[in-house]
Design goal:
This protein is an alpha/beta fold. The chain has a single domain, classed as Vaccinia Virus protein VP39 (Rossmann fold). The chain has six helices and seven strands; from the N terminus they run αβαβαβαβαβαββ. A seven-stranded mixed sheet has the order 3-2-1-4-5-7-6, sandwiched between helices. α4 runs parallel beside α5 (102-111).
């Protein structure tokens, strides 16, 4: 089911091969690395240093050279990343169950990305985050549930939020 989830995220990303992608809460880089072949560059941020070491190793093992990973709290590292890398066309977010804090949502809006692909393990936190993004001009285009854990109440969702036409 993870392959299915990442496939849906890739479809929603709509990459053409030249885009800059930010992968917030990237963990070991799986989602960003899955999209790297369709992007110009991928920048991942994760607060857990061991996860970033694994993301870098995963990129190396898979021969992916257009992905960079940074250790840090997304809340604090988005602005420095914007200064270093420039604005992304797409932002991937796969936050913890608690969702995105209001400050992270504000930083996400500052990125100015045309598309946001939001992978959520908790639809009840996706909803208010999507509403905050809608207030900033994003439209919730699609939400696809993915039953990663059959016969449990846990559902993953992949949402596409888009700014503009």
């Amino acid at each position: 089911m993870a392959e299915r989830l990442y496939g849906i995220a890739a479809e929603r990303a709509g990459l053409t091969g030249a885009e800059r992608v930010f992968d917030l809460f990237c963990g070991i880089g799986t989602l960003g690395l899955t999209l790297a072949g369709r992007a110009g560059e991928v920048w991942g941020i994760e607060i857990v240093p061991d996860a970033i070491a694994d993301a870098e190793e995963n990129a190396r093992i898979n021969g992916i050279e257009n992905a960079r990973f940074l250790v840090g709290d997304a809340r604090k590292e988005i602005r420095p990343l914007l200064e270093e890398a420039g604005k992304p066309k797409l932002v991937l977010v796969d936050p913890p169950r608690a969702g995105l804090s209001k400050k992270v949502v504000r930083r996400l809006i500052e990125c100015g990305a045309r598309r946001i692909v939001y992978v959520s393990c908790n639809p009840t936190t996706l909803a208010p985050n999507a509403a905050q993004l809608a207030e900033a001009g994003y439209r919730l285009r699609r939400v696809k549930p993915v039953d990663m854990f059959p016969q449990t109440p846990h559902i993953e969702c992949v949402a596409l939020l888009q700014r503009g036409a």
